[in-house]
Design brief:
With 292 residues, the chain is α/β, with parallel strands linked by helices. The protein has 9 helices and 13 strands. The strands form 4 sheets. A 7-stranded mixed sheet has the order 5-4-1-6-11-8-12, with helices on both faces. Strands 2-3 form a two-stranded antiparallel sheet. The protein has a two-stranded antiparallel sheet with strand order 7-13. The relative contact order is 0.15.
């Protein structure tokens, strides 16, 4: 619905608006100002997200469900991620899927049950995290959120993460979480907010800030991806960006869970007591939407 409003603006700004009229289908001052406002506001938040869910049989948790479909508190991990994205205003979700992708497609479908649109990017062969990202380049022409499919980060303020990212003018900003077992993850060494060194699963680690599996990326990240695939996000891509001084870290102090092992999955289950039945995913999604 359109509403008529009265605004007072600088004469020079009004002249600049008038110059847009008649170009690229702009019909009037109000049409021009509408377009300018929409463009400006879209830059203040993320609209797109890529979830890396390539996986294979090694992605099973305790020989049962694939990690993204592990249930925590009556809802799957990937559903928690998608609803988190929706609450942050992200409506376009791409999920990179591999050999077990059919299970995710059958469960999530087109995303309408969650209030988002879901598109799938298929890996014909394992590409690695960086390769899966490269495979989606044409679909990501603007800043986007990158998320692993097996992490829970419900207390992370995605809007603040994006503001922090834009303030540093970097290529990629990683959310960093504290871990008591840093050698199991990618460990970041910070100088201020800049990540000066990134090491994936070191045998020993001096610090405890690890890759939380969430990042904001600029489209310029694709220039750092090796041409030879498969390529790892952690081994091949992040150190290269850090070497150019364009990798930043956003320290996240809230609860964070990686459900990659039975131990960590049990920790997440204890934190999120089951409040919803484990019925159809649409019912779970509807229950959580009402809660939020």
């Amino acid at each position: 619905m359109l509403e008529r409003v009265t605004v007072t603006i600088d004469e020079q700004l009004l002249s600049a608006v008038d110059e847009l009229v008649g170009n690229n289908g702009v019909k009037s001052r109000s049409h021009a100002m509408d377009g300018l406002l929409r463009s400006a506001l879209s830059q203040q938040r993320l609209r797109k997200a890529l979830i890396l869910a390539g996986g294979s049989e090694t992605s099973l948790v305790a020989g049962k469900s694939i990690k993204p479909l592990a249930e925590v508190g009556g809802i799957t991990v990937i559903e928690r991620i998608i609803l988190k994205l929706k609450r942050a205003g992200i409506g376009e979700v791409i999920i990179s899927v591999g050999s077990l992708g059919e299970k995710l497609v059958a469960h999530l479908q087109d995303g309408s049950a969650y209030g988002v649109t879901i598109d799938y990017a298929w890996e014909d062969q394992p590409l690695g995290g960086a390769g899966a990202l490269k495979n989606c380049q044409a679909r990501l022409p603007e800043p986007f959120l990158l998320s692993y499919a097996d992490v829970i980060y419900e207390e992370l303020d995605l809007a603040d993460l994006y503001r922090f990212h834009k303030s540093n003018n970097g290529v990629c900003t990683l959310a960093l979480a504290n871990s008591e077992e840093p050698s199991s993850f990618g460990v970041a060494k910070l100088s201020g907010s800049q990540i000066v060194e990134f090491e994936e699963k070191p045998s020993s680690a001096e610090g405890h800030l690890v890759n939380a599996g969430v990042a904001v990326c600029e489209p310029s990240i694709f220039a750092f991806i090796p041409k030879k695939l498969p390529a790892s996000f952690e081994h091949d891509l992040l150190p290269s960006i850090a070497g150019k001084g364009k990798l930043y870290g956003y320290v996240y102090s809230g609860e964070w869970f990686d459900v990659g092992t039975p131990k960590s999955l049990k920790m997440a289950e204890r934190h999120f007591p089951e409040r919803h039945s484990s019925g159809k995913h649409a019912s779970n999604a509807s229950a959580l939407r009402k809660k939020d």
